[in-house]
Amino acid sequence: MVTRPMTPDELEAALRRIGAERYHNLHPFHRLLHEGRLDKGQVQAWALNRYYYQSRIPLKDAAFLSRAEDPALRREWRRRIEDHDGTDGTDGGINRWLALTDGLRLDRADVEAGRGILPATRFAVDAYVRYVRDKSLLEAVASSLTELFSPTIISERVSGMLRHYDFISEDTLRYFGHRMTQAPRDSDFALDFVKREARTPEQQEQVLEALRFKCDVLWAQLDALHHAYVTPGLIPPGGFRPR
Ligand SMILES: O=C(O)c1cc(C(=O)O)c2c(n1)C(=O)C(=O)c1cc(C(=O)O)[nH]c1-2
């Protein structure tokens, strides 16, 4: 039997089905976070661990750029690094994430050094950086496609956290406001790219597998937080201990 390739729109529909089944908005830890059912220490643990993800995103995008031979593709992709690193050391997503960890009264030097992050945070995030470094450019672009689904979870998160936690303010959540425009711009580009470039059934399966992989990267981080800080509450040696 010869499998025919999917049309670009069929491929998009298959990608969206993966998001609907596996994106981290479905994880129980996110529900607890957004519904105000965590205490401050648990929210601190989330923000601390998530900083490690934020801090590695520019490294994975730099790994991507180092292999992209097309200047137009590099021009598009390098904006992602600027979004996170900023241009003068005062703006940028990493600084905005530090405003959140500052607001939660975490020590900045500890956050920046990754002191107390969970082993699984490190393993999952490092696996993402390696994936983008080692796989094809098509798979690397496809692995960023979780961002197609992030605006919905971000708006749920911001409204839920503002409503439920007195230690959270609009100012400390300002990171997310910027993502609401950056993420759709980035994911529109990535989606057009994979719809155009993934033409054979093999390439299309690689694209779908890349998105499943990335959903696992996000899910594994929340599993680890849930295991350490919710139930059974086993904080690994060296892990952050809320006061
Ligand atoms: O808050 C979220 O739920 C969420 C999800 C994702 C994602 O789906 O990968 C990203 C982000 N935020 C984010 O802030 C971000 O900078 C980001 C970069 C990437 C990527 O794969 O390049 N994903 C995400």
From TrEMBL:
The record ties this protein, via SUPFAM superfamilies, to:
Heme oxygenase-like
E.C. code: 1.3.3.11
The pathway entry for this protein reads as: Cofactor biosynthesis; pyrroloquinoline quinone biosynthesis
- EC supergroup of this enzyme: oxidoreductase
Positions of the Thiaminase-2/PQQC domain: 13-223
Q: Which reaction does it catalyse?
A: 6-(2-amino-2-carboxyethyl)-7,8-dioxo-1,2,3,4,7,8-hexahydroquinoline-2,4-dicarboxylate + 3 O2 = pyrroloquinoline quinone + 2 H2O2 + 2 H2O + H(+)
Domain of life, per UniProt, equals Bacteria
A Gene Ontology molecular function term for this protein is:
pyrroloquinoline-quinone synthase activity
Give the matching Gene3D superfamilies.
Heme oxygenase-like (1.20.910.10)
InterPro entries cross-referenced by the UniProt entry: Haem_Oase-like_multi-hlx, PqqC, PqqC-like, Thiaminase-2/PQQC
UniProt keyword terms in alphabetical order? Oxidoreductase, PQQ biosynthesis
Any one biological process term the GO annotation gives: pyrroloquinoline quinone biosynthetic process
HAMAP family, A to Z: PQQ_syn_PqqC (MF_00654)
- Tell me the protein family, please: Belongs to the PqqC family.
Q: What does this protein do?
A: Ring cyclization and eight-electron oxidation of 3a-(2-amino-2-carboxyethyl)-4,5-dioxo-4,5,6,7,8,9-hexahydroquinoline-7,9-dicarboxylic-acid to PQQ.
Name the record gives this protein:
Pyrroloquinoline-quinone synthase
UniProt organism field: Teichococcus aestuarii
